[in-house]
Write a structure and sequence with these properties.
heterodimer; A: 474 residues; alpha/beta; seven-stranded mixed β-sheet; two-stranded antiparallel ribbon; 19 helices; 14% strand; B: alpha/beta; 13 strands
Chain lengths: 474, 441
């Protein structure tokens, strides 16, 4: 009899989630409830079977098991910057401009493989043929000569930390991986739970630290939207109020997303507060060389903090300055006061790495290593970064000139005063929405544009579009 | 009303949810034993020395040894018959082809190229399988097998609706435990290796599995069990599948040696495919480190088999959320090689030959070692050497015997008596037989 009713019920879709279906079931049960007990029981079990199917249980024999473990999994919201790229790609408008993702583009708007990188790869291919290298595992902490070269690149080869042997590097999965390795270590070994990031900052900073275990995420003021400038006083105040031991994420240069960096004097005051309050500096250095074109200039803040005697971490990315985005070449530089502690620290970082990815990918690290160690290749690379940084500076100038020429309301000096890949234009969400929908200009809703997407051929259209947007919504 | 399984907490932010991962991750406590000195002024004075890695320790000791007859049977990386690392001809050819293409270095998608994921799933599940064709798998590129396991463990720690404990076979790869623990999962075990037979403890495994609490996660080595080399027989896999289903357990397969074990990629995927046939919606970690010799390029894949395409889309979106704060997106050098090989008919054929060549050499060494021991006059039963499969062999030697073979013969292996057969060559297998006989007679 049970099967009979199951068959009767089966024409009904099993995935019914609607109220009417449930009401129908209740009504059906009610109507027949004064009939024989047997009939009621049958109806009850049919109703239960129906409801269980609603709840995604599948009948197998006499037992039910969950049809899927992951029925509870919600759809995650898409990540804005990638959604933007997808939307721009799908757009057929001829004048569309992608100012979303931060990856360098040539004046023709194309990705650029650095000539020196091509040379390095050709060399590596020869080395594989000659069997001087192969595809074997790298050590857990990475290629030693890569880590040494990378650490030296950011600290400067004359760094006191290097002379005193109290700095080391850990090859990591680009900047993200270096931040994650560092954050995991700080959480697991030092039990740190409080971290600060600038308001605004790169969207992934908070996620990295939280996933590493940090439980208390706080912001320090940074961007002043009224002046389109640096809220230095706000930052100092927030750091003054930070608890001892808090980890502070600092952008070494070319702040993402604002493009505004503290002056040397301001860095001095920041260091004062951090020393006084015993805060831990964790530099994120994703643009060394890419910002000003000069490796030493872009590393100034990091080196300054070393000279001031801080213990610190610095995550380095070679994605932008080497154009090695998809090879995940990065380094975590660690500076300590007492070199006798280094072995212990390395052993603990080893455990963290081993449980996450075992050892880093070789290819990107080898390319960087080759270039940094070879005098000729290093020189060529320095020229490449000058090409990239100067093109961006040129575009900044071009955009500001045009906006000022069009008498676009507001101040536009920040476009050239900011540095690096990104510019926080100061455009409001409505203006951004307008640019997106009406002008096919793709930028983040916080007003961030990637200068890499600006080319000589789209400068005019961009300036005109921004002008239109500002005038419409000012 | 009928919203029990539907989207809960729609409004909660990603940030809030991800803080769940911050809770109670078991870790070693720090003992502040350092004396007060200049050291105390450093943040790091409380950092203890971590335990040495047993496998790396073996390699390090091996390097220092000056005995010309020394043998390194520690690390699991394939060596050719001259004891040298082996770059597969198919890999080399793929690299040349890729170099000609002039591909760019732009960021890969968070989960890697979809094609790579699809190719990996097809390799594991069989060409033309229903899962991939119906689009109900989520297959993402990961940082080799370790990365796949870590992504999987993190995903389960956050989203698995059942008991957040993974049951590992006893013994298992040493790194399984820290991967799962650091992801926030509990770790337990089921009997697997029978030291009295140096074989599979089928009855023990079945007994233990039948006692695993329902809706727990069970880890299964798809083939070439690491470290023992002991695999269940086909009929045993079938019974295990039924039992796992009956117990309503979630099967997590680790397949690091597909093709490398028997020389046949389909044969080695038998267990995975059997479970799929029996209706398990498994998850799977794959590594290309061994079967394509791409160790240092870190190529792997993580797959979740979902109920349908819609569920796969949701699961995919959540997995990306876990990957982004780990490393943002994967390295492509290795995955491009894999994709090239798996899509290029000639290269694919070449690869299957390359991998069979590696597997055959290992199988040959096993046979020669067993024969060698017999020739030495050993009265012990060494059948397990040829019964076991894959890179590793659990010799059955005791820690004392291992100590002896290392100090007296400069043969390096891990204390559990595990040897990497890949480290044996035709020129030293005789020496190894002699040494093993000497310490075990």
């Amino acid at each position: 009899m049970r099967r009979l009713f199951s068959d009767m019920m089966s024409p009904l879709p099993t995935e019914l989630k609607s109220l009417p279906s449930f009401l129908f079931s209740c009504l059906f049960t009610y109507i027949h409830s004064h009939r024989s007990h047997q009939l009621t029981a049958i109806l009850e079990s049919a109703l239960i079977a129906h409801l269980l199917r609603l709840f995604k249980y599948k009948e197998v024999g006499h037992s039910f098991f969950i049809m899927s473990e992951f029925a509870v999994v919600e759809a995650a919201p898409p990540i804005e910057v990638f959604q933007l790229s997808r939307d721009c790609q799908a757009d057929t408008h001829t004048q569309k401009i992608n100012l979303g993702v931060g990856a360098y583009r040539t004046p023709e708007g194309k990705p650029w493989i650095l000539p020196v990188v091509k040379k390095a790869e050709a060399q590596l291919a020869k080395d594989i043929d000659a069997e001087t290298i192969n595809h074997e595992y790298l050590p857990v902490l990475g290629l030693d000569s890569f880590a040494t070269a990378a650490t030296s690149m950011v600290l400067g080869k004359d760094s006191p930390a290097l002379k005193e042997e109290r700095a080391f590097g850990v090859q990591s999965l680009s900047g993200t991986g270096a931040l994650r390795n560092g954050a995991e270590f700080l959480f697991r070994q030092l039990k740190r739970t409080v971290f600060y990031f600038s308001d605004p900052t790169w969207g992934n900073h908070g996620l990295i630290f939280k996933n590493a275990g940090f439980t208390d995420a706080r912001k320090y003021r940074y961007w002043n939207k009224d002046t389109c400038g640096f809220n230095f006083e706000g930052m100092i105040e927030d750091l003054q109020n930070a608890p001892e031991g808090a980890v502070i994420i600092l952008h070494a240069c070319a702040h993402n997303p604002t493009g505004i960096d503290p002056s040397q004097e301001q860095w001095g005051k920041i260091a004062d507060v951090m020393q006084e309050k015993k805060l831990f500096p964790f530099f994120d250095c994703a643009y060394q060389g890419f910002a000003s074109g000069d490796l030493d200039q872009d590393a100034w803040a990091v080196r300054f903090f070393v000279e001031r005697g801080f213990e610190m971490f610095c995550s380095q990315s070679f994605s932008k300055n080497f154009g090695l985005y998809n090879e995940r070449a990065g380094n975590l530089t660690v500076v300590v006061k007492d070199k006798s502690l280094i072995e212990n620290m390395k052993s603990q970082i080893t455990l963290i790495v081993r449980a996450m990815y075992s050892n880093p990918p070789a290819h990107g690290g080898r390319i960087v290593d080759l270039v940094l160690k070879d005098e000729q290749l290093f020189k060529e690379w320095c020229e490449c970064i000058k090409v990239m940084s100067s093109r961006i500076i040129e575009m900044r100038q071009g955009l500001r000139e045009r906006l000022e020429k069009l008498s676009t309301p507001g101040q536009w000096n920040h476009i050239t005063e900011q540095i690096g890949m990104f510019s926080f234009t100061g455009l409001t969400p409505e203006m951004c929405q307008f640019l997106l929908k009406e002008k096919h200009v793709y930028l983040l809703k916080n007003g961030r544009i990637s200068m890499c997407g600006v080319t000589p051929s789209n400068l005019d259209y961009l300036a005109e579009s921004i002008n239109e947007a500002v005038n419409k919504f000012k | 009303m009928a919203t029990c399984w539907s989207k809960m907490n729609k409004s909660s932010s990603i940030l809030k949810r991800s803080s769940l991962l911050g809770q109670s991750i078991p870790w070693q406590p720090i003992k502040m034993g350092a004396p007060l000195s200049a050291r105390a002024s450093s943040w790091w004075s409380g950092v203890e020395m971590g335990p040495p890695d047993p496998i790396l320790g073996v390699s390090e000791a091996f390097k220092k040894d000056t005995n010309p007859l020394k043998m390194n049977l520690g690390v699991g990386a394939y060596r050719d018959d001259q004891g040298k690392p082996f770059v597969l001809p198919s890999v080399r050819e793929a690299e040349r082809i890729i170099a000609q293409k002039g591909l760019n270095k732009e960021y890969a998608p968070i989960g890697g190229e979809p094609e790579f994921g699809r190719l990996s799933a097809n390799l594991a599940f069989g060409q033309g399988n229903e899962i991939v064709s119906s689009g109900r798998n989520v297959s993402v590129q990961t940082i080799s097998g370790t990365g796949a396991l870590r992504v999987g463990a993190t995903y389960l720690a956050k989203w698995f609706p059942g008991n957040k404990t993974v049951y590992l076979p006893r013994p298992s790869w040493g790194n399984h435990t820290p991967i799962f623990k650091q992801s926030g999962m509990n770790v337990d075990g089921y009997r697997y290796y029978d030291p009295t037979t140096c074989g599979f403890d089928f009855n023990g495994a079945m007994e233990d599995i039948s006692r695993i609490p329902e809706k727990s996660v069970i880890m299964l080595h798809a083939c070439a069990h690491n470290p023992t080399g002991v695999d269940p027989k086909d009929e045993q896999w079938k019974e295990m599948s039924q039992l796992v289903k009956k117990r309503n357990l979630f099967a997590f397969f680790d397949m690091a040696y597909q093709g490398f074990a028997s020389g046949d990629v389909d044969r080695d995927a038998f267990a995975v495919r059997q479970f799929l046939e029996d209706g398990h919606n498994i998850c799977l970690s794959q590594s290309y480190a061994k079967n394509m010799g791409l160790y240092g390029e870190r190529v792997g894949a993580f797959t979740v088999v979902c109920k349908d395409k819609e569920e796969a889309a949701r699961v995919n979106s959540q997995i990306k959320i876990l990957i982004r704060p780990m490393y943002s997106n994967p390295p492509v050098n290795g995955s491009r090689i894999v994709s090239e090989i798996l899509t290029n008919t000639a290269l694919n054929k070449q690869w299957l030959e390359d991998v069979k060549g590696m597997a055959d050499r290992i199988i040959t060494m096993r046979q020669e070692l067993k024969d060698g021991l017999a020739n030495e006059g050993s009265s012990k039963n060494w059948e397990h050497i040829v019964d076991q499969i894959g890179m590793f062999c659990f010799t059955g030697m005791t820690p004392e015997q291992v100590e002896k073979i290392t100090t007296e013969f400069s043969v390096y292996m891990t204390k559990d008596g595990r040897i990497s057969v890949a480290g044996i060559s035709s020129s030293n297998v005789g020496y190894l037989a002699k040494a093993m006989h000497a310490v075990t007679k």
